[in-house]
Design brief:
Layout lengths: L3 E9 L2 E8 L7 E10 L2 H7 L10 E2 L3 E9 L11 E4 L2 E2 L5 H4 L10 E2 L11 E5 L3 E3 L6 H5 L1 H12 L9 E4 L3 H12 L5 E5 L2 H9 L4 E4 L5 H8 L5 E6 L4 H10 E9 L13 H6 L2 E4 L6 H10 L9 E6 L3 H9 L7 E5 L3
Parallel strand pairs: 11-12, 11-14, 12-13, 14-15, 15-16, 17-18
Antiparallel strand pairs: 1-2, 1-4, 3-5, 3-9, 3-18, 5-6, 6-10, 7-8
The protein binds zinc ion (2 copies).
Length: 345
């Protein structure tokens, strides 16, 4: 005991500081992981800006990570020292109705490690073995960190019965929006429209197979998508921005009987929507919260090389450049999509 290691916290809006944290004694089913890569998520940026709805500074940041197992508790059987792993960063009770039903993402007291004081921009990370997933061979630690956002996108897609050949519109050109675009491509979706606001990302959307990548600032997003679908509308729309306007548009571009999945995080608490559309067109609107058994699916997809996460990584920086990494991730001019912090073993 007595050994400490640095862990990053946002101590005030716009300020990252490293605090020393002591290495805990491992519980019987706990795993000590040497973090090798951690990526910056939109929610980390909300915290950095001081605009996260619940996590206010000072708070730990980082929940997308991969690393190497260093030590295991006496009862751990799933992994052993030296294994390369990704970590599912949730904290759930295991006892509430949702947990007992197997829907742990809906746990009555769902939380994340960083909100409990453990962030991923650190030398070490401790997790219960249930949440530690071995990485397939050949997958880098940087890609391993992106299993978390990939799981979010997979979960959003699993919320509706989206079928081969069906058309869709993805609102949002951030990592989740573009991961959704790729997943739709992998499963053989039909025409896929991506709506975004950054030219570098729209360009990436085109390269990743978008039928059309639309800059929402040009206006008439709905008219454009309706025109491209002969006024029918798309089978499904995904709201991956958290913007009231995008939610309304996602309802307006789906066909009669179409489906809308909301996965974006809204800063606004209330949004007014064209309610009569639901009745007239029998639209289904559904939410998607985090992930639940989606890490396993994500890792199988990656093992089969169905999609390449490297194309989502635009910047790789060392841990001591974390402040710069956050600023870069927020700078629209920097062309950042996923900023990953890489740490040596
Ligand atoms: Zn995330
Ligand atoms: Zn629970």
């Amino acid at each position: 005991m007595g050994e400490t290691y640095p862990m990053a916290m946002v101590t005030a809006p716009g300020v990252i500081e490293f605090r020393e944290r002591s290495l805990p004694a491992l519980g019987p089913q706990e795993v000590l992981i040497r973090v090798r890569a951690a990526s910056i998520c939109g929610s980390d940026l909300h915290i950095f800006k001081g605009k996260h709805p619940v996590a206010m500074p000072p708070v730990a940041v980082g929940h997308e990570l991969a690393g190497e197992v260093r030590q295991t508790g006496e009862a751990v059987s799933k992994v052993s020292a030296g294994d390369r792993v990704a970590v599912e960063p949730v904290v759930v009770c295991g006892e509430c109705e949702s947990c007992l039903r197997g829907e742990y993402h809906l746990c009555a007291s769902i939380s994340f490690q960083y909100r409990q004081g453990q962030g991923a921009f650190a030398t070490y990370f401790v997790a219960h073995e249930d949440w530690v997933h071995p990485l397939p061979g050949g997958l880098s630690f940087e890609e391993g960190a992106l299993v978390e956002p990939l799981s979010v996108a997979l979960h959003a897609l699993s919320r509706i019965e989206f079928r081969v050949g069906q058309t869709s519109a993805v609102f949002g050109d951030g990592p989740i929006g573009l991961l959704l675009l790729r997943l739709i491509g992998v499963m053989g979706g039909g025409a896929t429209f991506v709506v975004g606001a950054r030219e570098s990302r729209l360009e990436k959307a085109r390269r990743l197979g978008a039928t059309e990548a639309i800059d929402h600032r040009a206006g008439d997003v709905v008219g454009r998508i309706l025109q491209r679908t002969s006024e029918r509308g798309v089978d499904a729309a995904f709201e991956a921005v958290g913007a009231p306007e995008a939610l309304v548009q996602s309802l307006q571009v789906v066909r009669k009987g179409g489906k809308v999945v909301v996965v974006g995080l809204f800063e606004a608490q209330e949004v007014s929507i064209p309610a009569n559309l639901f009745v007239q067109r029998e639209i289904t609107l559904t939410g998607a919260q985090g992930y639940c058994w989606d890490f396993q699916t994500a890792l199988r997809l990656l093992e089969q090389r169905e999609l390449n996460l490297r194309t989502f990584i635009t910047h790789v920086l060392p841990l001591d450049s974390l402040q710069e990494a956050f600023e870069l991730a927020l700078d629209p001019e920097a062309g950042a999509l996923k900023v990953v912090i890489k740490m040596d073993g």
